[in-house]
Amino acid sequence: MVNQKIQDRLAALRAVMKKNGVDWYMVPTADFHNSEYVDAYFKVREYLCNFSGSNGTLIVGMDEAGLWTDGRYFIQAERELTGTGVTLYRMLEDNVPTKEEFLQQKMENGQTLGFDGRVVDTRFGLKLEKDLADKQIKIVYGKDLADEVWTDRPALPCHPVLVPDEALFGQNVSEKLAAVRKDMAAHGASGLFLSKLDDLMWLLNIRGADVECNPVALSYAYLTQDECHFFLQDGEVTDVLKAHAAKYHITLHPYEEAAEWMESCAITGSVMCDEGNVSYAFYKILENRAEVVDAANPTELLKAVKNETELANMQEVYLKDSAAVCKFIYWVKKNVGKIPMTEYSAAMYLDHLRSEIDGYLDLSFPTISAYGTNAAMMHYEATEDNCAALAPEGMLLVDSGGQYLGGTTDVTRTIVLGPVSQTIKEHYTAVAKGMLQLTDAKFLYGCTGRNLDILARQPMWDQNIDYKCGTGHGVGYILNVHEGPQGIRWRFTGNQKEVPIEAGMDVTNEPGIYIEGSHGIRIENVMVARNGVKNGDGQFMYFDTLTWAPIDLDAIDVSVMERKDIERLNRYHAQVREKMTPYLNEEEAAWLKEATRAI
After folding, report:
1. How many CB atoms neighbour CB 150 within 10 A?
2. Cis check: omega of the bond before 485, within 30 degrees of 0
3. Which one of 125, 137, 287, 353 is separated from 295 by 20 to 30 angstroms, measured CA to CA?
4. CATH 3.40.50.720 corresponds to the domain 4-148
5. Which fold has domain 305-588?
6. Model-level pTM?
């Protein structure tokens, strides 16, 4: 079946490419700040090829086009690309070329590659320069060609900035600026250019609303040892923000003037920036003005290690959020097959429960509610017009979270609605074993997520099954649900950073099994790394759990569990029962007591 709308859009793009002398054109997912999730204005790739996942790059030539995405989206991409004429390239699969390899193979000597340099990160842009140099490829990055095709493109998002009570953050802006400037000095840099939105929100103790579910505002900053220049849209500036900026000697500038200002401001010495996050277009400006020092944003690691004020607030928020999840599981199990219920209506019920929690701001991402075979797609999203009806059989996977004044949550539970096969029970039990095994980890300081990943993944590998994503990611504090640099995965590729797990870092723990056409299972908690015993062998560490919701015993097969697995499950369920019962009514508490019984 031909998707004529997409084919027409690609034809229009090719006409614009030809007019501008561009042979190949590349469209990534990012906005001007290399954000993972982007506003509608930046969803050019989706507009041109129909793929709606949060990670993917479209490359368009005059006669062919390809879309590169990761294992979370293979099934979804295959469906959404049907009839578009765009070929799916499954990243990290055998015999699949990378984007650079594809361009090396396809482009002829002297041809031109085009892209909007504002939405391509510097590291990738420089790699393209190097990889394509032998073919004398010309790179043009100053034009957004899609803007000529997308005639009804939405406007840039613009919302007033929120300045919360600084007591929420445990540190004021002066303290954070001092820590960043100390890192700048250690790198010998007199200036620092920042464009990563959650880093900017963290540094200045503000929040925005320019990206769905991500409390960030489109902005840039340039710091010296004495000055802080902050660029954002005039419509976002409130009197409260003006007072906040004046208090901390922050100079406000219009967002659209950032590039022009950087081209003409006084710069002495070197400028520090993170090539993995700063856009290729801005890097070219900096490169022409000063020596550029490539280093991780100091804000990234400082932000990742939560202080005791943040952790105390998070613990309180997670108790209330977990209670909403418990109430939801009870409601689904009690009512499925008795009242009309769909993936979408179930998600709306959970979203409503969260909205009633004190300090609620928004969801932390659109709720994933996936029934039966749909759960095999890791980032499936049901809509009111396109969703499956729930029945008292099989399983419902629900991945959800909230933004609160006090924390950001992320939790997944796979809920048994009725009879499931023995194979599914064995798979579910393996996922539970892996999640609990990682929960129970004790490790030496210096370990990264690569050292720890096997604890979660081994029960799946024992069955010759793998899940095509990492096991865990950091979670922001009233910020983005995906945060670095910490992560738990068995391999790190591309721009993924590998850093030691530090005390105070939070991280998700979410192994899973996804069988296309059959079922998907994920169980996810959020944990915080803590320092344990320190002795002659070093600093030992462990994890504290933040998430408290039952693991569904209806899919647990005790016969494939060892004694230690059973002890871990019973211990976790005893804690769930203790912590959650005060938040539940009598009927819900009676259900939870049975749902967390010792096995």
Report:
1. 17
2. yes
3. 137
4. no
5. Creatine Amidinohydrolase (3.90.230)
6. 0.93
